[in-house]
Amino acid sequence: MASRASRRLLKDFLLKRVTSTPVSSVRHFSSSSSSETAPKIPHFSKKGRLLTGATIGLVIAGGAYVSTVDEATFCGWLFNATKLVNPFFALLDAEFAHKLAVSAAARGWVPREKRPDPSVLGLEVWGRKFSNPIGLAAGFDKNAEAIDGLLGLGFGFVEVGSVTPVPQEGNPKPRIFRLRQEGAIINRCGFNSEGIVAVAKRLGAQHGKRKLDETSSASSTSNNDVKHGGKAGPGILGVNLGKNKTSEDAAADYVQGVHSLSQYSDYLVINVSSPNTPGLRMLQGRKQLKDLVKKVQAARDEMQWGEEGPPPLLVKIAPDLSKEDLEDIAAVALALRLDGLIISNTTISRPDSVNKSPVAEETGGLSGKPLLNLSTNILKEMFILTRGKIPLIGCGGVFSGEDAYKKVRAGATLVQLYTGFAYGGPALIPRIKAELAECLERDGFKSISEAVGADYR
């Protein structure tokens, strides 16, 4: 297949080179003293001939390479090639670069992972099979535009949102700031969202496509095969719910999200921890959180569900919480049998590692490397407080497989990244998975599940 494709690309390239020769490059000559116009032949300068020859040589060499390598090797080459694009994105405005990346993923202009994940990374959570525990956090694909492309990159799961009931612009621009040397980002986007209707429409189309693919492939798939994935395709899809900035009834906003989007999601997230929506973090208080979760759970459970049951419900919390706050959240989570917690969102603090940067003075949530230790410490606390009874998703500062491994040993069943992906691009994903598998094998774990909370067992 690769050989036919490379030959076709080479043929198209050569045809274009011949047919696009500019008229100005053609000289006339006469075989006699006659003034009649002689046949036209292309003439190139020495530099032009060298450039053309080098280009054709590269195409032929590339075609030969593609035709001889196996699919896994070629897939690895494609992921590594994306590193060449990273410097280009670094030159762009941060928010424009983000939009461009989402657009590229939505159009399939990103590599697609064809290699199987290391078996040691496979696990089952909430009755759903994950091929690996590495996911993309909410905030990247806010409006569910690029789910297929992002899952195709090799993430075990992708979380879209935060989605608000009514469309809103969010905070004024500029609102995303890079701290490149520190491997960090500050954002104060403020739940910019196209709203539930637009997102539901996209998720509905994605869900329909998935069902169609399942039907068409049912005859060629053995019932004994282990299927990884969920409602969106090869990976698990989470939907992160937010509230509108001007809404006076937060619970009603989250309930509306459940009614409209839960049928398309493998899990739902109540986001009460963004620092960029006024008053939102107050919902993490014991009484406020308990009342909110009860209402959202009731709305979900009132809906009609098939054999698979309703989607799990999680809460995403902030890293800027006191020990008492964490105890209250853990008590609510255990009492209401919450399905999981995401730890954590961005921080409003400014660790010493970023204080010297003038960008650190910008208001908003800080993410990236400076958040790793803070979020992991909160993760450890919550794992102990919940006694390992609730699945935790570790998020914050993950840039390597070793970082992900720290989260897992601290109590994370699953791990998310965002800023690391923004800086490292698609090539980071297979690298993290390979490094994580090496960490597990180095320490004698036969599966990722065995390592969860290993530091406290």
UniProtKB/TrEMBL annotation:
It comes from Populus trichocarpa (Western balsam poplar). It is a single-pass membrane protein. Its EC number is 1.3.5.2. Pathway: Pyrimidine metabolism; UMP biosynthesis via de novo pathway; orotate from (S)-dihydroorotate (quinone route): step 1/1. It catalyses: (S)-dihydroorotate + a quinone = orotate + a quinol. This is Dihydroorotate dehydrogenase (quinone), mitochondrial. Residues 208-239 are annotated as: Disordered. It comes from the Eukaryota. GO terms for cellular component: mitochondrial inner membrane.
